[in-house]
Amino acid sequence: MNETVGQFLERYGYALASIGKRAAAFFLDELLLSTLFMIVLWDSVSQAADLQEMLFITNAYVFEYMGMKVLYQTVFVALYGATLGKMAVKIRVVSLHDGGIPSWGSAFNRALFRILSEMIFYLGFIWAMFDPWNQAWHDRTAGTVVVDV
User: Fold this and answer.
1) Which long-range contacts (CB under 8 A, 24 or more apart) does 12-18 make?
2) How many domains does the chain have?
């Protein structure tokens, strides 16, 4: 792709989503997924004798939780171009290749690198604050950008 992100945005008439909107969407998505995760684990967690045992139970399912996050991100981005959090704050993910909803492969790539960014002290997210196009690592690897709706 020979076109810069700025030229892409101008051609399609998109405006970049602000870091604040992206952070709000992230918070809403995390709140939703954490709540669902705790509902699923409620029987085990409610039986915990103390906080240490509760943490042990939740930590035992960390890979399942990451898998749930990858599935959620992939499905919603590939089908709608946005997660529920992004829909709530009126932003969406678009492909730099055609300006439309990212493909399944691109959405999956984005979801995996999003998890990687979280695991490395959220560095991929911090990167977006200093990137001229607000692209986090997962946006760069997937060839996407987040725009206002």
Assistant:
1) 12/94, 12/99, 14/94, 14/99, 14/145, 14/147, 14/148, 15/147, 15/148, 16/133, 16/134, 16/145, 16/146, 16/147, 16/148, 17/91, 17/134, 17/146, 17/147, 17/148, 18/134
2) 1
| 20-53 confidence digits (pLDDT tens) | 999 999 999 999 999 999 999 999 888 989 999 9
- Write the pLDDT tens digit of every residue in 100-116: 999 999 999 999 999 99
Range of the domain at 75: 5-148
